[in-house]
Amino acid sequence: CAIISTLFIKGESMKEEITNYPSKEKPWLKYYDYDTEKLEIPKMSIYQMASLYNKDRLDNIALDIRTGKNNFKKGVTITYREYLKRMREFAKSLSLLGVKENEIISLVLPNIIESRVSIYGSNILGATPYAITPLLAPEKFNTIIEENNIQNIFMFSMFYEKYKNVLNIRKYKNVIFLDGMETMPTFLKKYLRFKNNIKVPTGDNFISYEEFIREGKKLKKEITPYYDEEHTAIIVGTSGTTGVPKGVCLTDKNLNAAATSHISTGLFEENDVFLDVLLQSIAYGVSAMHYTTCGGLKSVLIPELVSDKLAYLLKTTNPDHFLGGPIHCLNIAKSEEFKSGELKPIKNYVSGGATLKKELEKKLNKVSEDFKENGTRSDLFVRQGLGSTENTGGGLYQMPGSYKFGSVGIPLPLNTIGVFTPGTDIELPYNTMGELCITGPCVMKEYLNNEEETNKVLKKHSDGKVWLHMGDIGYIDKDGCFFHKHRLSDIFMRRGFNVHPGKITELLNTIPEIKAVGVIVVEHPIEEMVPIACISLYNEFDNDKVKEKIENICKNNLDDMAIPYEYVYMEELPLNAGGKVNLPVLKGIYEERNSLKLKKWN
């Protein structure tokens, strides 16, 4: 540790001369043709901002909902007038359930209109939705519900089977079920529900979303929108850099600041088409929901976690904007549409979540490693960004004119960045390796009921500002571009979600039949990276029944993305001099044994 600390304090110099400090000089401001520091964040709730910004475009299309059942070619459209009306109806219905200001409700929903409506509708009432990813393990879901005394749960019917044991062991006030067909015409809705045998579970506290909304319509008086600048507008789950599950509290101010930052860039114009595959249970899904709504865009909603069909989707929906991750870029590069030249660059394609591999960035953008825009926008296919849940999803972006090969961009307006000696407020100069930190109005309020974890990432520096310590290591060049090198922790990305191999190992080590375990990470053509659990069993337990037990324990206690892609059973695992499992050697053994499979993947 002392060696690492000394390295960061001295600074690991790059080629260019070290001068002053990025956070003081803010060299990235030259890429903006306006004074970003004069931007005003609307002092109102997120619902009030959405309503105000769309008062003159109520008949414009807000949402276009597509499904794979029609090959994404035709959808159901909703105007801004109808969109805002549904938000108000939700608020009325929620009030009739007895939900109060600052009360937490939970949402376990895909990317459908009702997910958005429930967030804005809760905001009108002053309630706080906790957006829970459907990838969350049942036990973790139960913990969130219990610790926060959540009494009202909005659950997508497709996820019921996964969470039914949790829902059935406790008594809630209400579990409201949706099936994604609420927006469809009545005749089509009835036909599809009959065809697919979709039914709402029975029980006194189980009700359908349609029944929920129907009751609210009986309340004729409109609800006066609640507003408090520091009100937690939404809670988004994350494991962050430490691997500890936490709820990130994002305020109305956070979300309005993020929307103001994005809209002010001029990239988003009224009636632009935004292809949206993002869940609102991830921060950038919520952030994109808000800035596209306030910007008057037409969002094409895709309820599925699409990756391999993206090239077809881009061709079919012809969007101006798309936000995805490296897995989407990889699948586009492999697609026939890209190879044949059918896919042309769109106005704003952003890749985030993890940095692109150099070869993939070269292939998509058709540039060399020394390419830079130097103030003039180039016709690039993809631009990279970097953010975190704790910073409302977005932090940096390769703004048009600022692109440099290999960087993840410059700060979005209202964000200030700096590189610091990890865990301290010692700022490092340009071109010096350190930990990326961000300050500004997009930084979260806190982790829900977790002061200890909050204090690990939110630190008040000697300049009097609160800085978010991102856990990302890299450097800032003299133009203000950040180059990401690695993470402080060992997390990796699977389908755009953080996975902590240490947490998988920790769970497996609690199983008495297991003698030793090592979790390695390998590349996968569809999932980016996947965890492989290498396990040694005590001889007397080496049987199929025990192996089935191990898989069931992982399925019930790990988030979907953390469930091992493969279980490899070995007589003995290689150990290092300290008696611990030697992961590099273990990975080498695995790769040698599976060389044909890995070659096929690559």
The poorly predicted ranges are 1-18
Rg, please? 24 Å
Calculate the mean pLDDT score and round it: 88
Morphology call:
globular
Question: Describe it for me?
Answer:
With 602 residues, this protein is an alpha/beta fold. The protein contains 20 helices and 27 strands. The strands form five sheets. The protein has a nine-stranded mixed beta sheet with strand order 2-1-11-10-12-13-14-15-16. An eight-stranded mixed beta sheet has the order 7-6-5-3-4-8-9-19. Helix 4 (80-96) crosses helix 5 (113-125), helix 6 (138-147) crosses helix 7 (160-169) and helix 10 crosses helix 11 (283-294). The protein is globular.
Features:
single chain; 602 residues; alpha/beta; nine-stranded mixed β-sheet; eight-stranded mixed β-sheet; 20 helices; 27 strands; globular; disordered N terminus
What's the helix and strand layout?
Layout: H1 2-10, H2 22-25, H3 46-53, E1 61-65, E2 76-79, H4 80-96, E3 104-108, H5 113-125, E4 128-131, H6 138-147, E5 152-156, H7 160-169, E6 174-178, H8 186-195, E7 206-208, H9 209-216, E8 232-238, E9 246-251, H10 252-264, E10 273-276, H11 283-294, E11 298-301, H12 310-317, E12 321-324, H13 326-334, H14 336-339, E13 348-351, H15 358-365, E14 383-386, E15 396-397, E16 410-411, E17 416-420, E18 434-439, E19 446-447, H16 451-457, E20 458-460, E21 466-476, E22 482-487, E23 492-494, E24 497-499, H17 501-508, E25 514-524, E26 528-537, H18 544-557, E27 566-569, H19 583-593, H20 595-601
Parallel strand pairs: 1-11, 3-4, 3-5, 4-8, 5-6, 6-7, 10-11, 10-12, 12-13, 13-14, 26-27
Antiparallel strand pairs: 1-2, 8-9, 9-19, 14-15, 15-16, 17-18, 18-21, 20-21, 21-22, 23-24, 25-26
Helix pairs in contact: 4-5, 4-9, 6-7, 10-11
